[in-house]
């Protein structure tokens, strides 16, 4: 049974979401404040965490920042509707995706399943094994593991999926629609900056070519491509 950590101080909402998710076959542990949520998130007992931004004392952004310091646990943020700043900040700090409040339990469950499918792809029967390589980048999709310049490259679940797709199409542009469907499990929507933020994060982790070029280039009106040289 997939174990979900639900970090939110809104007790009625937590009860509603927990009841629905349990009915969908998940195990759910609630944490009513950021401090407890952080301890639980770092315990290694959960497949994914749902994290609310607006909490007293230790807020969701602080919790996410501390989680990412020590863990690649997938995190789905809950943000206020229309607050693009929170959405972008959460993604930049390493959230895998976000859902805006008020959200339906069904929508939340769908987003959780999309993230969990990505993290489980490596163990799927019949999946091709062996590394993917382009220059100093090597990825082992079946292990959800990557090396850059001979050292482990730390990526969130979504960042891994973004970079894996770009690597499989190295030297060729990949549309934002395809990246969103592969990495987020949903079509891209108008004004949705999720793909851009995840690509920007991967860019920073790969650094620049010696001549100052980014290793991931934007292709106007299409999407992005991983340069081979």
Descriptive notes:
The structure is a single chain. The protein contains 8 helices and 12 strands. With 229 residues, the chain is α/β, with parallel strands linked by helices. The chain has 2 domains: 3-122, Rossmann fold (3-Layer(aba) Sandwich), CATH 3.40.50.2300; 128-226, Arc Repressor Mutant, subunit A (Orthogonal Bundle), CATH 1.10.10.10. The strands form 3 sheets. The protein has a 5-stranded parallel beta sheet, with helices on both faces. Helix 1 crosses helix 5 (105-120) and helix 4 (84-92) packs parallel to helix 8. The longest helix has 16 residues, at 105-120. The N and C termini lie far apart (45 Å). The model has no long low-confidence stretch (mean pLDDT 91).
Descriptive terms for the model:
2 domains, 229 residues, alpha/beta, Rossmann fold, single chain, 4-stranded antiparallel β-sheet, globular, Arc Repressor Mutant, subunit A
Radius of gyration: 18 Å
Beta strands, count: 12
Helix content: 25-40%
Average pLDDT = 91
Structural class, judged by helices and strands? alpha/beta
As a percent range, the share of strand residues is: 15-25%
User: At the fourth CATH level, what is the homologous superfamily of the largest domain?
Assistant: Response regulator
Element order: H for helix, E for strand = EHEHEHEHEHEEEEHEHHEE
Highest-level CATH class of the largest domain: Alpha Beta
Overall shape: globular
Biggest beta-sheet profile: 5 strands, parallel
- How many H/I helices? 8
Count of all domains = 2
Question: Low-confidence runs (pLDDT<50, min 5 residues)?
Answer: none
CATH fold name of the largest domain, please? Rossmann fold
Name of the CATH architecture of the largest domain: 3-Layer(aba) Sandwich
